[in-house]
Amino acid sequence: MMSPIDRREFLKQSGSLAAAAAILDVRRLVGGDVTTSNAAEFIAGKDRRLIVYNAKVGEIETPLELLRDHRLTPKELLFVRNNQVFPGSLTLKPGNLAGWKIELAGLVNSPRTINASELERLEQVEQELVLQCSGNSRSRFARAVKPDGVPWQNGAMGNVRFGGVRLRTVLDALDIRVASEAKFVAAEGHDTPDKPDAADFEHSLPLADALDRSLLALRMNGEPLPLAHGGPVRFVMPGYYATMNVKWLGRLRFEATESTNHHHVGRYRTPRKPIPPGSKFSSTIENSEPNWDMRIKSVVFAPLDGQKLPAGPTEIRGVAWNDGQAKLNAVEVSTDDGRTWQRTQLVAASSPFAWQHWKVTLPLTRGQQTIQCRAMDALGRKQPLDGTTDWNPAGYAWSGVDSVRVEVS
Ligand SMILES: Nc1nc2c(c(=O)[nH]1)N[C@H]1C(S)=C(S)[C@@H](COP(=O)(O)O)O[C@H]1N2
Ligand SMILES: [Mo]
């Protein structure tokens, strides 16, 4: 947490945008209603063209026309989703490792609190991955029944490179042994809820996956991790929804069972068995699964929905990814409502967790045309033609075939 002195120093050093953001932050803390239409006024350093849904905690989406031209999504453009704000985090400035503490607790031989600066001395790794909110594309479910939550389009995601230390490396270096009864690790941030009676944000993840590939991330895209994205230390689990990548990491608890925290049980889960759109559903550990592994997905980046185009050969392009557990076999495109599908050219990615770009050139004839895309992987997983079959009240984990409508003349 920024001390008052840090904050004063910080305001002196940075321009009026940061000052404006700090004022908004203060107004939020005193309970004032904050409205802003500009992401840069809310989070110092963000691009003003981002879409702001909620400037109270931060729900900010990247328009596809800004997302599509970068291999790694720049921090200025990356979406933001806070459930609660960590004081001083509404900026792209890096967090301060000095004085930052992380507790390792629960079913371990010797529980400990470490200084985050110790992490810098351990072996560092880099991992490119898709960071996607499990609510991304939620608005698509409204074709059946409008779900609760902000109407994210396809831009609550980005493709970034996190750098840091593997959880496994940390445990080995400190000689911490996790008991065999431990099956989950619960990650908690240093952020706390606005309201005293509200649940704090935390999530549990399967321990086996966490030991295999989770990181305590200190960097993003080669730079110190910005505060807005969880700096100075973020728990990062490649292949999982961003929701599980707990920002401002403060504690890891090794446990035999899944957390009973409201955000982990009452939210961020999908029904195990399909439910009819519009039904009520109250999630429990038994009847639902957490938003862990990302479902297979593809998104059209060009042309954009609603674009006007001349008839003739047209390049159609986009990205596709899954949970990183199997190769993508193909991404296909249809311009005839799914009767026939054309294979696209898939560009290899540097990591199984990163998104892959694809493209294909197809002739478009005059009139209103719909372009659809779908991905499939080596485990036979594919995107349903009608994604609303996975309807759930909060619109999580959309993985239906993507489509854009264009006007060809
Ligand atoms: N500590 C903490 N971590 C958090 C959250 C939060 O509110 N607090 N929000 C989660 C959700 S729902 C998402 S989608 C991602 C968003 O990551 P970003 O803001 O870096 O894009 O952070 C996750 N980690
Ligand atoms: Mo999220």
Question: Could you explain the architecture of this structure?
Answer:
The chain has 409 residues and is mainly beta. The chain has two domains: 101-290, Sulfite Oxidase, Chain A, domain 2; 297-408, Immunoglobulin-like, CATH 2.60.40.650. Helix content is 12%, strand content 31%. It contains seven helices and 24 strands. The protein has helices at 4-13, 16-29, 39-42, 64-67, 167-174, 207-213, 262-265; strands at 51-54, 59-61, 80-81, 101-106, 112-115, 125-132, 157-166, 184-189, 202-206, 215-220, 223-224, 234-236, 249-255, 269-271, 288-290, 297-302, 308-309, 312-321, 328-334, 342-343, 345-346, 356-364, 367-377, 402-408. The strands form six sheets. A five-stranded mixed sheet has the order 5-4-13-8-9. A hairpin with a 5-residue loop joins strand 4 and strand 5 (112-115). The radius of gyration is 21 Å and the shape is globular. Mean pLDDT is 92; it is low at 1-34. The chain binds ligand MTE and molybdenum atom. Residues 78-84, 131, 133, 189, 191, 201, 229-230, 242-243, 245-248 line the site of the ligand Nc1nc2c(c(=O)[nH]1)N[C@H]1C(S)=C(S)[C@@H](COP(=O)(O)O)O[C@H]1N2.
Chain-wise SSE layout:
Blueprint: H1 4-13, H2 16-29, H3 39-42, E1 51-54, E2 59-61, H4 64-67, E3 80-81, E4 101-106, E5 112-115, E6 125-132, E7 157-166, H5 167-174, E8 184-189, E9 202-206, H6 207-213, E10 215-220, E11 223-224, E12 234-236, E13 249-255, H7 262-265, E14 269-271, E15 288-290, E16 297-302, E17 308-309, E18 312-321, E19 328-334, E20 342-343, E21 345-346, E22 356-364, E23 367-377, E24 402-408
Parallel strand pairs: 4-13, 17-24
Antiparallel strand pairs: 1-2, 2-3, 4-5, 6-7, 7-10, 8-9, 8-13, 10-11, 10-12, 14-15, 16-18, 18-22, 19-20, 19-23, 21-22, 23-24
Bound molecules: ligand MTE and molybdenum atom.
